Write a sequence for this structure.
């Protein structure tokens, strides 16, 4: 069970629904956290934009959206553009904790997840954003062999209570409108896991020149 402690937390994600799928249960399990969600894509999406704000209300969080390209071709974005967008959207204050994507993403494969993670780590290392610690989502899908699942051996791993998990799934299905047999509804992890960093240099070191985690 997670401790009920007060924290100022920023969650930085690529898409509306990422804040629910990968960290929603943790947010719901920590009602004393003051969470601000930065979503970098889909602000001009007339369907997803209002659903994102309804999701924030259900999570008792605040947040903002950007409008980076999120076309189906997944054309790579310049790292400086992603960094600049994060800085434009984030409140200019210190956070106790920042949570974001893993440099390898959570499943095979979405380039925006990887780009957001690398940009956040670089900004932290360059002291352009301020936090005591950084968590990155820790999930894998066996190269598409199964739905994404939390990696148990990471520094932070917990199984959600059934009540919390049902609330999380309800946001995915009822607020975001995903059908029961959709990828999102079938994924909706009951366990959540994170890599934890308290040193920005060590976080930066974990990314090789090819953008792969150094094991």
């Amino acid at each position: 069970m997670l401790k009920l402690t007060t924290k100022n937390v920023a969650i930085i994600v690529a898409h509306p629904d990422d804040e629910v799928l990968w960290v929603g249960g943790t947010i719901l399990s920590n009602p004393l956290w003051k969470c601000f969600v930065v979503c970098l894509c889909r602000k001009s999406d007339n369907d997803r934009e209002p659903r994102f704000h309804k999701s924030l209300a259900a999570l008792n969080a605040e947040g903002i959206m950007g409008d980076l390209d999120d076309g189906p071709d997944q054309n790579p974005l310049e790292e400086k553009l992603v960094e600049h967008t994060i800085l434009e959207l984030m409140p200019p204050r210190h956070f106790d904790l920042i949570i974001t994507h893993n440099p390898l993403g959570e499943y095979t494969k979405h380039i925006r997840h990887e780009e957001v993670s690398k940009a956040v780590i670089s900004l932290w290392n360059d002291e352009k954003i301020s936090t005591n610690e950084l968590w990155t989502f820790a999930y894998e899908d066996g190269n598409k062999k199964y739905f994404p699942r939390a990696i148990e051996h990471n520094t932070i791993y917990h199984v959600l209570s059934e009540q919390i998990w049902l609330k999380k799934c309800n946001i995915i299905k009822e607020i975001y409108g995903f059908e029961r047999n959709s990828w999102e509804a079938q994924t909706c992890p009951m366990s959540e896991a994170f890599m934890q960093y308290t040193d920005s240099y060590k976080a930066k070191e974990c990314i090789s020149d090819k953008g792969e985690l150094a094991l």
Observations:
- The longest strand covers residues 34-41.
- The radius of gyration is 16 Å.
- The chain has one domain: 8-205.
